[in-house]
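Q: For a teaching handout, I want to show students what a protein-ligand complex looks like in token form. Below are the inputs, and the small molecule is zinc ion. Please produce the holo structure.
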Amino acid sequence: MKVKFWGARGSVPISRPDCRVYGGNTTAVEVVSDGGCRVIIDAGTGIRDLGNSLLAKLPVKIHLLFTHYHWDHIQGFPFFVPGFIPGNELHIYGQKKGEQDVRDILNHLMSPPNFPVPLAIMGAKMVFHDLQETGEIVLADDLKVIYGPLFHPNGVVGFRFESNGRVFTFLTDIEHESEDEVSQSPLNLSLNADIVAYDCQYTPEQYPSRKNWGHSTWVSGLQLVRKAGAKSLYMIHHDPAHNDVQIDSMLKAARAQADALGVTVEAVYEGMEFEVGSPSSSD
Ligand SMILES: [Zn+2]
Ligand SMILES: [Zn+2]
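A: Here is the structure, written as tokens, with zinc ion included.
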């Protein structure tokens, strides 16, 4: 199973000279099983470049999974070019919010006066699927996704990808509910994972003044990874106010504690790609 991050920034896309290492695009992650089953998590602004990279591989069948519908996770969708090309197939998964399902929400995103081109014009075959509170989806013989709720304003879904004995867990826009205890749902999703990608938006010093904003710290990320018996913490959803130097220093602080726990830590950057379970990603 291969993973590539096309956006690592949280909250809002940015572009500044001091943020070029970790990048400015928001969440879009490509997961491809050994057998070639292709998943995209979220349609933040990173999905634009991701989509363009697929133009050499058409036609494509893609499973697009939405964690939730905050702007930084949907805003790139209208710029996902493969969605406009007949012959491609898009299976789109997301939770209902009140009366609106994922199709209604994307329809709204692509309606005047917010956007001039309607969803109905997109030429790819689109199939919409509701996600429940928790569940399991078998996408291919070699790719299963298990999902469950995380603590975040308006709700969010965390995903666990299992493929050929390897596990990649993706927990964005999560806030820890307690300083002392790890919540059951993220713990279940992270059990014995090779990699847990976890929202580490704030430094431990910043967090107290940002409580209930829906994001977490590397301290809570390490606590979760250790309790779950997982191998590696990947820091994601970088704060738009943090430059490369600040993220480097958060990574250094996290590694200083992680070494004693036998856990590795990486800070995800835009363009980062790896094979889950390979020496560079899990040792
Ligand atoms: Zn977000
Ligand atoms: Zn959010």
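A: Two things your students might notice: The first strand starts at residue 2 and ends at 7. The pocket of zinc ion (ligand 1) is lined by residues 10-11, 70, 72-73, 173, 237 (CB under 6 Å).
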